[in-house]
Each structure stands twice: as C-alpha cells, then as structure tokens.
Design goal:
alpha+beta; 2 domains; 5-stranded antiparallel beta sheet; 5 helices; about 15% strand; elongated
Length: about 160
Amino acid sequence: MWIFTTQGLASITVSTDDASKMQIRFRVPAEMRAIQKTYGIRGKIIETAGTDYPCRIITTRLQVIRFVTKVVAAIAYNNFKAANKAGESYGHTCHDVWRAGAEHQRRTIGYGPYEMAIDAITAAEHQHRAEWEAWERGEEWNQESAWLNNANTHKP
C-alpha cells in the first residue's frame, strides 16, 4: 500500500524477514525521518543503500494502523498537491501520480481531467503567444483586443 503524506511517500507491506511484522518503506531518508517524527512511528530502522526503498521501519501492525489513522486525522487541506511539505521533487512526483491517475480514468471510462488540463494549458500558451507577439509589434495587449483580432482574422 502506498501512502502519500504531505511529508513524503511511504510503502507499507508485510516485512520480508518476519511475516508477523510490517515494514514501512521509504525512498528518501529525510522523508522517513520527518514522517517518523511527525507520526511517532516506533520500530527498528534499517537502511540498505542500493535498493528500491533504501530505508525501512520494521514495526507492528498496530503501529502501522496508528500511523495511517494519524495521517488521515491530520488532513486539513482541500488540495493535496498544494499541501506538499517535502520539496519540489516530491511535488513533481505527486503531479506525475495525478497524471497517471487521470490517464487511467481516460482509458477506463473514456474521458478524464487530463483533457481539461490540456485545454487549459493550450489556452494559456495561446494567450502568452498573443501577448509576446503584441509586445514584439510594440502594441499593448489585452484580452478584448485579442478576441477581436482573432475574430477578424478568421472570417469565412
């Protein structure tokens, strides 16, 4: 199970060494330390460089339940990606996951927020291009004149 917190990503599985234990795995040591401190996770820390998850906390199922419960209880945001406290790289990771979910939605039900986001980006790019071209001509650009010019240049 992947848990995306505002402080980083954790992967929760049964311990590979002891099936009676759980492991909370982390890709970034600083995220492990921040999450462990914030949520009070107790357990044995194992660091293994060169693995897909170089940091792990081996703990009990009860500690994992407490951790997940505290993560949910701490939610005070209405936009997860904007609440990121783990830095720019983690922010990019969260956006990548959002895009992957949007693509899954599109493949599964035929449409998704990705199309809406592409439309918004395309509109912003067109607006930026119009502003730049007006500046190059020494003209002042505004939305109303852009609409009028666009309508006049595309007459049948």
